[in-house]
Every structure is written in C-alpha cells, then in structure tokens.
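Milestone M4 deliverable, item 7.
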Amino acid sequence: MNNPEDIPEYVKKAMQAAYDEAVIAYENNEVPIGAVIVKNKTILAADHNRIVERRDPTAHAELLVIQKVSAIIQNERLVDCELFTTLEPCAMCSGAIIMARIPVVYFLAMDEKLPGLRSISSLTGHNHTPSVICCENVDFPAGELLKKFFKNKRNLATVKKPHQM
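Output delivered:
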C-alpha cells in the first residue's frame, strides 16, 4: 500500500491522526510514536507515547489506545477495529494487539532493529494473527521524525558529557 491513490480516505485520515500524535510526543520529549484505533471507518481513540510523562515504561501509544477503546466499547476484544501506528509495534504492544484480537494493523515505519509485530506474527501456537500492512513510503515521514528525535538525543548527550583527556 505504497501508492497514495490506492489508499482509502479513512485510512489517510487515521494515518494523519497517528502522525499528528507522534508530533505531539516529539514536542513533549517523548519517543515520537502515535497510534489511532478506527472502527467502522471512524476514529475512536488517538494517543501518543507517554512514557516520560507518566514515568511508566508501558505507556506506549498502542497500549493507551487499546485501553481507551476497550473502555469505550466495553469489550476487551477489538475484533471490528483497525490499529494505525507510526512505528511497527514492539513485542509488548504486539502481544496486546494479539490478545485484543485486533484484525488489522497499519504502521508507517518498520522497526529494523527490533521488529516486534512481524516477529511475533510469524510465531506459531497463538490463535490470532493480525493482517500487517506497512505504509512506509506514504506521505507521512514517521521514520524521519524518529531519526531526528534520536539524533537530537545523541547530540544532547554528547554536549553534556565531560571531555576526556
């Protein structure tokens, strides 16, 4: 799904909303990841990483929107929903996606270092495997935003280190 003309309008809106959430995370000094859950082509919840804000290593965007939508629809199974996120979900979030029975996951950038969702989806033995749709070369520079964030972090760490003699 790398051709923008082939993408349904609700998918474009959901990807834009997820990217907007990633920008909010970036502006709040959080790893810039945003996520959105859609049901019946309507966004039910959007959020971004809040790990630093909450001092909680599990406050990933994907988990936060899964929790929000579960509360909204009063069901732990999100079988009629689609998840949109700016980065391929990590192993923790992938487990939650599988447990929530989310059938379709879209992401804007692949995690080459730690491919959580692609790795977990390839394992046998679990009874739910979501469809995984990578939209990496679409109009949202989620991967570039992540690279910029980590480059800034590295540069800041270098400035703060005392010079060695």
